[in-house]
Predict the structure.
Amino acid sequence: MKIIVQKFGGTSVANLERIELCAKRVIEAVEKGYKPVVVSSAMAGETDSLINLAKEVSPRPPEREMDMLLAVGEQKAIALFAMTLNKLGYPAVSLCGWQVPIITDNIHTKARIRKIGVRRLLNLIEEGYIPVVAGFQGVTEDWEITTLGRGGSDTTAVALAAALRADCEINTDVPGVFTADPRIVPNARKIKKISYEEMLELASLGAKVMQIRSVEFAAKYKVRIHVRSTFSDEEGTWIVPEDEVMEKVVVRGVTADTSESRITVVRVPDKPGIAAEIFKALGDAHIVVDMIVQNVSHEGYTDMSFTVNKNDADKAEEIVKKIAQKIGAKEVIRDDKVAKISVVGIGMRSAYGVAGRMFEILAKNGINIMAISTSEIKISCLIEEKYAELAVRVLHEEFIEEMEEFETINGKSK
Ligand code: ADP
Ligand code: ASP
Ligand code: MG
């Protein structure tokens, strides 16, 4: 039995006509001999409008109630999806996370999947049904509904593929993973194959085409992922183990991430234990800190800046303000208008000069760098948000020749 997990994103299921197109994709898979398991996101805009409703009630609603609310979006989509398949003559059954079950930890709004029960899915498939599973949601051991963070349907799909030992197809509104967001860089190129590690960096650094956790899952369980367009038949991008990626380009892609805020604690006494106190408190509140910069100290004082996801910025600011008061720091400044621009590629492990070129291009375009972070396969710079798109475009232009093998027609590059 060849099972395939087919995930459809929000734009793909934005209205009933589109759901019917998605259903036809599923039927094609059935006709080719696959047993599909469908994962659907909420219809486009639905999750955002539920969040806005909640924010009208209160700026920081209880996270448990947020999960109760947000899970509704996917529940609506899967019911309509299953109805459409039934109408087209293919029996289908929709399932919420708890009905599968997809068991998660109890960190509301960003839960992690712990276990998946596959018995019910396998029974349904045996009986000739197509299961249509709600993305983005799960249930704790205590029967509380959880959600997996924005874009979490990708993770549902990959986790199901891992549990069912199936391939995973991510059907979305672009025909694959590109060297930069095709909406910002029109001449970005589609990548044919990309390693988990590179995809993980791209996703972590702003390429929202795949949720980060879904790629972590794929790497851990070696799930092969095909990212493709819901609306065309063209071959998309394969996300696979590194040894299957022949081409080790220096720069695989350029990304911009505007989802973070920068928080600066000004005039912190420069003595041991202060950084530990701040970052331990943030960790205890389940807040992930990304870039950290500590300035050179002057007269026993220093400034400390760090970035966190905008969703956590209120909470982080509150925590840090309390500590700042206690330790006698001058003030806490928050800046929401920042962007992290990155270049990523496994070839960078053995290449030199990439950082220099990146800084030079930014400087030439009058873009100031506020913080830098690097790993073996990426370089990131924090800049003002208003320059994000410009930075992506000029960096893409700089590295384009090195990014992907050219497809040649009659010996000429195109
Ligand atoms: P879905 O609703 O199907 O989950 P998303 O909106 O979450 O889709 O992700 C797809 C979007 O990701 C695309 O519309 C595109 O604008 C954006 N994107 C950002 N970077 C990239 C990239 N490098 N390659 C492809 N798409 C990207
Ligand atoms: N509906 C959720 C969101 O908008 C999950 C997803 O689409 O993957 O983030
Ligand atoms: Mg998505």
About this structure: The radius of gyration is 23 Å. The chain has eleven helices and 22 strands. The chain has a mean pLDDT of 93. Residues 9, 151, 154 surround magnesium ion (ligand 3) (CB under 6 Å).
